[in-house]
Amino acid sequence: MDQDILFRNNVKVKGHGSQSIIFAPGFGCDQTVWKSVAEAFEKDYQIILFDYVGSGRSDIHAYDSKRYSSLAGYAQDVLDVCSALDLKNTVFVGHSVGSMIGTLASLGHPEYFSHLVMIGPSPCYLNDPPHYYGGFEKEDLLGLIDMMDKNYIGWANVFASTVTNNPERPEVKHQLEERFCSTDPIIARQFAEAAFFADNRSDLIKVTVPSLILQCSNDIIAPLAVGEYIHQHLPNSMLKYMDATGHCPHMSHPEETIRLIRQYLSMASIVVSLAGRGAHF
Question: Could you tell me which InterPro entries the record lists for this protein (predicted)?
Answer without folding.
Answer: AB_hydrolase_1, AB_hydrolase_fold
